Amino acid sequence: METDDTTAFGLSPVKITAIGLLIIGWLTAVVPVVLGASAIDTIIIAATFAIIGLPYFGYMIIRIANDESIMEEYSNTMTRNILAILGYLVTVGIALNYLYQNFI
């Protein structure tokens, strides 16, 4: 019986990314508590990581939506790409604005 990448014990790029994100999420929750930060500080740190991650995931969604080998007849058209890029730029702007207001 052959195993695909989802059932194998090997490390694929997707699994490495998922493990990395889980470790970052765990550290985001545990390290502030260990260092004695307040609950508000912990929430601000968690929100920061969420805002930073949002443009990354938006980019990945656009890439997947454009991949005809994955999406086949449902891949993005030019109009959808333009709207997706505009939405992505808004998302990046929101993330940069958040970082600027809270850390600069």
Features:
77% helix, 104 residues, 0% strand, flat, mainly alpha, 4 helices
What do you see in this structure?
There is one protein chain. By secondary structure, the chain is an all-alpha fold. The protein has one domain. The protein is built from four helices and no strands. Helix 2 packs antiparallel against helix 4. The longest helix has 28 residues. It is flat, with a radius of gyration of 18 Å.
Share of helix among residues? over 70%
Please state the average pLDDT score: 84
Proportion of strand residues: under 5%
Rg value: 18 Å
- SSE order: HHHH
User: How many separate domains?
Assistant: 1
Distance N to C terminus: 56 Å
The shape is flat
Count of DSSP-assigned helices: 4
> What's the β-strand tally?
0
Structural class: mainly alpha
Low-confidence stretches: none
| Largest sheet report | none
Q: What is the element layout, followed by pairings?
A:
Elements: H1 13-34, H2 39-66, H3 68-71, H4 78-103
Helix pairs in contact: 1-2, 2-4
Describe this structure in a few short sentences.
By secondary structure, the protein is an all-alpha fold. The chain contains four helices and no strands.
